[in-house]
Design goal:
By secondary structure, this protein is α+β, with helices and mostly antiparallel strands. The chain folds into two domains: about 35 residues; about 80 residues, ACT-like. Chain A, domain 2 (Alpha-Beta Plaits), CATH 3.30.70. The protein has four helices and four strands. It has a four-stranded antiparallel sheet with strand order 2-3-1-4, with helices on one face. The longest helix is centred in the N-terminal third of the chain and has 21 residues.
Length: about 150
């Protein structure tokens, strides 16, 4: 085992401790190990996806954070082929949520997700996706003409 030291916002730690208590954890270290493992598995799962995907990216951000709205918009303008639609929701006086529907190559969608994730002022980003259904459509040779 390695021992590490970390700094966390007070509220984040309090919320984490509350979740640990609700889930019956006896040890904060065990909870942090499990949370890290979950984070790694999610990342690996996202990284192993391939091909055409359809999905939703959910972003929660502090709209008072200088420049974050403009940065989110600038990033999204680079992915107009993958972004089908987006919705903006005012959650509280401080926080906004954006829901972006994406459809296209997973490499582009993953890049879009990670670029938004790295922005200061962005609190949470989650990609949920599935195969976009093209593999279910069987080609009917008599309906297609190739020139």
């Amino acid at each position: 085992m390695m021992r590490i030291s970390m700094s966390l916002p007070k509220k984040l730690l309090a919320d984490f401790d509350e979740v640990l208590k609700d889930r019956g954890y006896q040890s904060r270290s065990k909870g942090i190990r499990d949370a890290l493992q979950d984070y790694i598995v999610r990342y690996q799962w996202m990284n192993e996806m391939e091909g055409e995907r359809i999905g939703i990216i959910t972003i929660i951000y502090d709209h008072h954070y200088k420049g974050v709205m403009e940065e989110l918009a600038n990033i999204q303008h680079n992915y107009t082929n993958e972004i089908t639609t987006s919705m903006h929701i005012h959650m509280t006086n401080k926080y906004c949520m954006e829901i972006i529907v994406v459809n296209g190559d997973i490499n582009e969608i993953r890049e879009l997700t990670e670029r938004m994730m790295r922005l200061k002022g962005v609190e949470h980003v989650k990609l949920t996706s599935t195969a976009n259904g093209e593999e279910f459509e069987e080609p009917h040779s008599h309906t297609h003409s190739h020139f």
